[in-house]
Amino acid sequence: YVTTASGERFVFSILVNGVNDVRLRQAAIDEIVVALASFNGKTN
Which residues lie below 8 Å from residue 34, measured CB to CB, with a gap of 6+? Predict the structure, then answer.
């Protein structure tokens, strides 16, 4: 779960294939989560 900047709660799952380096994989996941949390719009 992540709560966005606009207060909405998202449920999400991330699957990463083909990235063997743990640090690179975690950095990619972190970047995605920050983007989701920064979302300031509304969904319907």
Answer: none
Q: Outline where the chain has alpha helix (H).
A: 22-38
Question: Which three-class secondary structure state does DSSP give residue 35?
Answer: helix
In angstroms, the CA 11 to CA 38 distance is: 15
pLDDT higher than 90, residue 22: yes
Nearest to 29 by CA among 18, 11, 9, 14: 14
- The domain locations on the chain are 2-38
- Using the predicted structure, report yes or no on whether residue 26 has a pLDDT greater than 90: yes
* Alpha carbons 15 and 5: distance in angstroms, whole number: 23
